[in-house]
Amino acid sequence: MTEATRHTPGAPCWVSLMVHGLDAIKEFYADLFGWEYEPGPQHLGPYVRALLDGREVAGLGRLPGDRHLPVAWTPYLATEDADATAESIRSCGGTIGVGPLDAGEAGRVIIGSDPGGAVFGAWQARAHGGTAVRGTPGTPVWHELITRETASVGKFYQVVFGHDARPAAPEDGEDRLTLSVGGRPVASVHGLGARLPRPRGPHWLTSFEVADVDTAAELVTGLGGEVLRPPAPGAAGREATVADPEGALLTLVTTAHLA
Known about the structure:
Number of helices: 4
Order of helices and strands: EEHEEEEHEEEEEHEEEEHEEE
Strand order of the largest sheet: 3-4-5-2-6-9-8-7
Domain VOC: 11-125, 139-255
InterPro entries: Anthracycline_SecMetBiosynth (IPR052164), Glyas_Bleomycin-R_OHBP_Dase (IPR029068), Glyas_Fos-R_dOase_dom (IPR004360), Glyoxalase_6 (IPR041581), VOC_core (IPR037523)
CATH class of the largest domain: Alpha Beta
Organism: Streptomyces genisteinicus
Structural class: alpha+beta
Oligomer: single chain
Mean pLDDT: 92
Largest sheet: 8 strands, mixed
Helix content: 10-25%
CATH topology of the largest domain: 2,3-Dihydroxybiphenyl 1,2-Dioxygenase, domain 1
Low-confidence stretches: none
Protein name: VOC family protein
Number of domains: 2
């Protein structure tokens, strides 16, 4: 287990999931990833932080009963000034759904969407720095934006978060970008064009490390989730795309160094 240092502005620093049945989803991820929980800020309603060996790795919260929002994992990108980031989001064609607002002493938060409609968060850390460990089973290891086309969306993240957006190798045949901060890749963008699933639309997809993808995928089914793309070799290692019992998508991956 590697302890994460303070997150560089523009890099993913946290991931959270807002659901309808919080208790049942807590149990699902506890069984899948070995998570334990502690209370977190209640600024958006009931919320807990997921822990591995006492270190914070993700957040789970309950959606307000009167809000029928898509259930999805949301990545948060680090910022040193949430208010300035909110202004930049709006000026670059994005929208702000929540904030900027204080999450107690933990930090300052924004939830917004890019010009394509994909939802993301921005986090200005104070007491809570974000994900505290990485590279071990049960932790988020990568984030990919699934969208219609990469060019305009890539420019949005370049301007708002300072990402260096570079196309994938031409021989790949796909519309892809890699987003980097300080020369380090932190996320990717995949343009699907007309193949983008209509009901879900543009969205971020988070990958979580597991010790064995095949075993984890079987466990997902047994816990009431669904395997949408069975385990197979991928860019980072063996991976599978699954949905939890409320339909939130995630990728399970055993990266090459653990395989």
